[in-house]
Amino acid sequence: MIVGGYAVLRLDAVRHNLAKVRACAPAAKVMAVIKANAYGHGLLRIAKALTDVDAFAVARVNEGIYLREAGCTQPITVLEGFSSANELDAILRYQLATVVHCVEQLAILQQMPEQAQLSVWLKMDTGMNRLGFKASTFSDVYQALQQCAIVKQPVGLMTHLASADDINDDFTVRQIRLFNEVTSGYAAPRSIANSAGLMVWPEALADWVRPGVMLYGISPFPDRAGQSLGLQPVMSLHSHLIAVKPIEKGETLGYGGSWHCEENTLVGVVAIGYGDGYPRHAKVGTPVLVNGQRAPLIGRVSMDMITVDLTSQPHAKPGDPVMLWGNELPVEEIANCADTIPYTLVCGITQRVQFIDV
Ligand SMILES: *Cc1c(COP(=O)(O)O)cnc(C)c1O
Fold first, then answer.
1. How far is the CA of 292 from the centre of ligand 1 (A)?
2. What mean pLDDT comes out for the span 181-203?
């Protein structure tokens, strides 16, 4: 038996979710986004489960190097690109593709004499105001990249949507329109959509889609769970009860004594805490599955433990199984209870949590 938190990873669910991507974007190529250790699911595990995607995307050069050294041969795009000539060297050595989003990167490329070795995605800032060239300078940079010896042609053209998860926000329409206007004359592959974009904005499909969160079975929309969108959660998080004890009316529970016992209560102590990545800010009442039944969190989340109200399960005992999120308890619901988004929960799983592939 595993003592403490463990995560179960369903690799068939990853492939199911990829099929969902393909169903939404049948004509597009798929660049699977596996940055941040594949959203906490394990970079290599997920890369191996996704052998038939057209490319991978990571955020950082070191993530790309890690994949190459593990034997990954697919195209890999580094979404933040390089920030020095040294990093560009590494990109070339490991045959990674780079995003170019700023003038400093362009200046480095212009000094490289080698011929046509580097695959580039040129990024336009259509309103996110994070990375990318403004529409007003985009065409000049595109022309400049045509003149760079080292850059393979054609250069890909991309942008990133800021509000695609809100189907009522026409900001997305304006971003797509601007991108299409500026790039209309160019014979080059285009990419716009993240998970939310490819699910609800058909005009964003373009030549390549860049799904991240949906591959893990998680909804990009704040008010929906992945399962209601036909996705299957990949990760479930589990632990066990390690103590069960009654506390009396009038007592308090846990750090700060912040939870006051209003009725005699049976408390279950679960071996999971923020040291495992369970959210510190999960509110009192956050559901936890004990023996498959919902029990509410009570008291504060501590590093190694949480406490739950087991009054409805008088026969619960140490060793009984607990699920913190998974198929029957959507991670989206837990994220809402902790005032965060599910992305942060799965990304935040820590090293001591054991991973089990099924
Ligand atoms: C993270 C990221 C994605 C994937 O976003 P999801 O919301 O997880 O689908 C796509 N494109 C870029 C540029 C990103 O940074």
1. 33
2. 97
Ligand 1 nearest atom to the CA of residue 123, by list position: 13
- Rounded Cα distance between 18 and 32, Å, is 9
pTM to 2 decimal places: 0.97
For 135-146, letters b (16+ CB in 10 Å) and e give beebeebbebbe
Say whether pLDDT at 1 is over 90.
Answer: no
* Cβ of 330 below 6 Å from ligand 1: no
Quick check: is 255 catalytic? yes
Cα–Cα nearest to 82, from 113, 114, 121: 121
Looking at the structure, give the CATH architecture of the domain made up of residues 235-357: Beta Barrel (2.40)
**In the chain, where the domains are located:** 12-217, 235-357
Contacts of 58 (CB under 8 A, 6+ apart): 33, 34, 35, 43, 64, 67, 76, 77, 78, 79
196: tokens are 């939310």
Architecture of domain 12-217: Alpha-Beta Barrel (3.20)
- Residue having the nearest C-alpha atom to atom 15 of ligand 1: 79
160 lines ligand 1 (CB under 6 A): yes
From the candidates 6, 20, 29, 35, which is the catalytic residue? Answer: 35
Q: Is 212 in the pocket of ligand 1 (CB under 6 A)?
A: yes
Pick from 150, 148, 154: which is nearest to 183 by CA? 154
Residue 128, token pair as written in the block: 């996110």
Peptide bond before residue 342 is cis, with ω within 30 degrees of 0 = no
Q: What is the pLDDT of residue 100?
A: 98
* pLDDT tens digits along 205-233: 999 999 999 999 999 998 999 999 999 99
